[in-house]
């Protein structure tokens, strides 16, 4: 990996046309419809009233597992998704064409044998009106690429959640085939499907995409605290702290920090593990008419 080369690359442009089937498939991939009598999820599943979950922005104009491509020189087998944040600027269309502009913003070298942090941003615009829909930022831990230098400015650290009992607890149930379903929305990293790749990366079996768990959280916040109005969710950020395995039953812990802001954490109680931490969701003050 050559950090100077990566930091000076021009924006990578990705154009993506999608339809209502893709919008429904994403919702299914993040757990919508698991409870047949939960009518809140139907807004994201039925064509006659269809809305797009805001977190679907993470798979729109998605360049695929770009870190795997040889021109980047990244040891992709040892890459871990560390943090994710999204700002949602406008309601996502349920179908249409979008354009993504991917840039590598910063690389922080932790030293030889300790890896490096890589910060990338993807801005998503609607076509043809060039309206900014979402800003997607990802922090990756490159465990095999330390000691090679870096550059660029890293963002401020995420804020910790309160050290008191949570105000709200919500179960999140993943299915054994959850990763195979979620990958149909575009994230084909074999770590989440191929046992041999997972073992080579140090895991006993394929793990769930961090962005799938992220989507579970976003869906629960939109349906549970935004009256199923996707425009109410303005931003969602978190750190991935431990792997989730398909089939895990998770617990979403929420702290209401104000009328329009939640801190959150996600635990896997059966393994006594925290899988998402430093989470924060910001809601808008105005509901859609």
Q: Can you put this structure into words, describing what you see?
A:
- With 289 residues, the chain is of the alpha+beta class.
- It has one domain: Thiol Ester Dehydrase, Chain A, CATH 3.10.129.10.
- It is 15% helix and 35% strand.
- The protein is built from five helices and ten strands, in the order H-E-H-E-E-E-E-E-H-H-H-E-E-E-E.
- The chain has helices at 3-7, 20-29, 178-182, 195-200, 210-225; strands at residues 12-18, 79-88, 96-111, 115-127, 132-142, 168-173, 233-240, 249-258, 261-268, 273-283.
- A ten-stranded antiparallel β-sheet has the order 1-3-4-5-2-7-10-9-8-6.
- Strand 9 (261-268) and strand 10 (273-283) form a beta hairpin.
- It is globular, with a radius of gyration of 18 Å.
- The protein starts with a helix and ends in a 6-residue tail after the last strand.
């Amino acid at each position: 990996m050559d950090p100077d080369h990566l930091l000076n690359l021009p924006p990578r442009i990705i154009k993506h046309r999608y339809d209502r089937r893709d919008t429904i498939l994403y919702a299914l991939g993040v757990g919508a419809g698991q409870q047949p009598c939960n009518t809140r999820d139907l807004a994201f599943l039925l064509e006659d009233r269809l809305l797009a979950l805001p977190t679907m922005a993470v798979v729109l104009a998605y360049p695929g597992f770009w870190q795997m491509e040889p021109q980047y020189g990244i040891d992709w087998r040892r890459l871990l998704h560390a943090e994710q944040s999204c700002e949602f600027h406008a309601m996502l269309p349920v179908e249409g064409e979008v354009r993504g502009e991917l840039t590598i913003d910063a690389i922080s070298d932790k030293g030889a044998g300790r890896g490096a942090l890589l910060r990338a941003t993807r801005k998503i615009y609607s076509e043809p009106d060039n309206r900014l829909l979402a800003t997607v930022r990802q922090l990756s831990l490159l465990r095999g690429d330390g000691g090679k230098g870096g550059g660029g400015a890293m963002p401020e650290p995420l804020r910790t959640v309160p050290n008191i009992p949570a105000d709200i607890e919500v179960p999140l149930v993943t299915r054994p085939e959850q990763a195979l379903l979620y990958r149909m929305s575009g994230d084909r990293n074999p770590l989440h499907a191929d046992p041999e790749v997972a073992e080579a990366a140090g895991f006993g079996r394929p793990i769930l995409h961090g962005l799938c768990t992220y989507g579970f959280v976003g869906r629960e916040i939109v349906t549970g605290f935004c009256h199923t109005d996707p425009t109410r969710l303005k931003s969602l950020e978190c750190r991935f702290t431990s792997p989730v395995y398909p089939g895990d039953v998770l617990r979403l812990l929420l702290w209401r920090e104000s009328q329009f802001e939640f801190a959150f954490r996600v635990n896997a109680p059966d393994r006594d593990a925290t899988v998402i931490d430093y989470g924060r969701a910001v809601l808008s003050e105005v509901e859609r008419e």
